[in-house]
Amino acid sequence: MDPITHDQIINEVLHHTQTDPHKRASGLSDFILGAQDGLVNVLGVVLGIAAATNDARIVLVAGLATTFAESISMGAVAFTTTLADADLYQSEREREYRHIIETPHLEIKEIRDIYEKKGFKGALLERIVTTITANQDIWVAVMMAEEHQLAPIDRRTAIRAALLVGFSAIVGSLVPLFPFMFLPVSTSMWLSVLVTALVLFAIGAYKARVTVGKPMKSGFEMAVIGTLSALAGYLVGFILKVPPLP
Prior knowledge:
Low-confidence stretches: 21-25
Shape: elongated
Strand content: under 5%
Number of helices: 9
Radius of gyration: 26 Å
Helix content: over 70%
Mean pLDDT: 78
Order of helices and strands: HHHHHHHHH
Largest sheet: none
């Protein structure tokens, strides 16, 4: 392999930090957030209502009401949280521009320290520092990525996160409700627990496969934690059971 030149290094650094930075939040994390929340919350509600009333119609009404309220709430939270991240990025970005103007020597030193820690030395290090600090926009972009570990976020990203979280919450919420549409309540309760646990296991295993971790362990942990959380709803419904109508 031919020795890499300083121009190639600069181009790669700028591509990595400005043209194509890593995203802080991914579609996968948004989907898992919504789906897991919908699965666990609606399972807890339907188990509690089923244990208290033994009425499939009431279970479905309560479950569907929870489904849509949950999806709207989760989508709104995802939207506002992403916008808050965007506001943080913008405020830190503006602060960096002020620092470059008011304390340029300190900011140059910070760039030098960043790339010195990466192993660059001597004349090559100085050329990198000179190239980056020659353009304020590039300078700030590098500082945002390297010093603050922040990537730019726009309103479209917030809308996409809200829609994805809300949609996945609906999809996840319908899973524990499905058995109650066709089977008796007593059968549906345990089938709902089983199906939800299997889906949670699949989500946990998939997350570990595409990110990091052991799929079996991650899937088992998500299934156990989610199922135990939902069973709290069953316990409340069982304790507060509604007496049958005369």
